[in-house]
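Lab notebook, bench 4. Continuing the backlog of folding jobs that were queued last week. Each job is logged with the same field layout so the records can be merged later without manual cleanup. Today's entry covers Eukaryotic translation initiation factor 3 subunit D, a 590-residue chain. Filled in by technician R.K.

JOB TYPE: sequence-to-structure
TARGET: Eukaryotic translation initiation factor 3 subunit D
LENGTH: 590
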Amino acid sequence: MVFETFEVGTVPFNSDGWGPPDASDTSSTSVAAANLLPNVPLASFSRSEKLGRVADWTRALSNPSARPPTGSKSDPSAIFDFSAFAVDEGFGLASSGGNADEDAAFRLVDGKPPPRPKFGPKWRFNQYHNRNQLPQRRDEEVEAKKREAEKDRARRDRHYNMNRNNIHQQRREAAAFKSSVDIQPEWNMLEQIPFSSFSKLSFTVQEPEDLLLCGGLECYDRTYDRVTPKAERRLERFKNRSFKVTTSDDLVIRRLAKEDKATVFATDAILAALMCAPRSVYSWDLVIQRVGNKLFFDKRDGSPLDLLSVHETSQEPLPEGKDDINSAHSLGMEAAFINQNFAQQVLVKNGKREAFDEPIPNANEGEENASIAYRYRRWKLDDSMYLVARCELQSTVELNNQKSYLTLNALNEFDPKYSGVDWRQKLETQRGAVLANELKNNGNKLAKWTAQALLANADMMKIGFVSRVHPRDHFNHVILSVLGYKPKDFAGQINLNTNNMWGIVKSIVDLCMKLSEGKYVLVKDPSKPQVRIYEVPADAFENDYVEEPLPEDEQVQPPEENNTEGGGAETNESSSTNEAAEDKKPQGRA
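JOB STATUS: finished
OUTPUT FIELD FOLLOWS
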């Protein structure tokens, strides 16, 4: 067998450093040149010098524009050819002679894979570029599902935005509320007080004194505490009459006024409207009568205070037409009907009633009255001023071997689409969410109920959740649940400050005590967070006084904001409110 010999080329010895010897060494130049491949750049280097690219494996030789003029696609030594890039990339090592520019021209080869596109497979967006590269395969079914889900999400977002735009448009139209009373041309506006001034007021009152307790109360039926949406109770109708006479018509208050027991007289509903005025949205009004040194806060016949507001503080608009069963007026009538019947149904029907000092004032003899008690209480506002208020209690119960007084009120659900929470599904498992939603939609009503319970010194306030049998049936209702709260604890939950409530009442009383004898009306502006005080004729709101509604363009318009600021808006003390009212009274009467 004949073996071919493999000849190893001559390797010159470099005693001065690494690599082949310098070209200046003539003895070994010819030997080194015989071992060098063509088109391979070579330069002397030491251990401290940086090495350039030996071979560029990343060059796209399939692109004719990027192919160097020397070498060809099939030439295996073309990957070592840097002659075309000697000037641009700094590899002209033969001509550089080891200049200092070699460090600046040094570049690293990026070995990272190209980034993937964020959406979809790569071959969909790069199908006409770099055909020699294989596509990155993915699960096509998963990608198709993702694309369908993205289309569905975009479609839902489009419909949602369209509906929200329509809601905003309706809300702007429905936001133009009407005033609770027509402002007549002969009325003279005296004061204009913004609600921003009420938040700074504070007044501390002493413990009130109980003057008289009238009426009779029946016991609360505790079985209603176990009512659930699955074990609901039908709301019944009762014929028992509940008297809601105004302050000046109350016979007991007239007697107390003659006995000079106080200077200011009101009811708990009127005081609660004043105390919670900053939370109100709808327009309401009060009639103020100054008789001698006495001050009476009354309500008109047919006043909004006789009804219960529904969805007042909600962001969703209600239908405007009065004939609609879901309009603000219709819901107010329905809520008052529900509240009156609920307060009578949750009582024990055994004929036993606890009677108090006197019967209900203004009640007709022989007529069956509802279970209600009037507690007349007196508060001291200052050394020479006392306030007497008639407060209501609806029931009594034995708790820990002690008699406790209750107030009974009912929230009503008319359509879950408006409230956003279905009581039948959430009341058992998420009562907190239901109550939080009601605080958002009916914050003013709940605050007034809490203020009335605090004024009456009730030990417990029972709140019922009453819903329609069907959203379009506003005659038949069912009781879904009944919850109980302590008034002081509930006031803390809804951020109702007692000192601020009395600060508002004290400022209004001080303002009205500086007015001369006559009749005035306090009106909450239908579109702005403020109240106004008008001087009205003495026969206003009487039976023989007929108001002719005026067109909006002929009604008296209030002055500009910068000219009429509310009294006491910049102070925390009620006395500063009085000083502002004293300065503005001559201007208002001019």
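OBSERVATION: The longest strand covers residues 473-485.
SIGNED: R.K.
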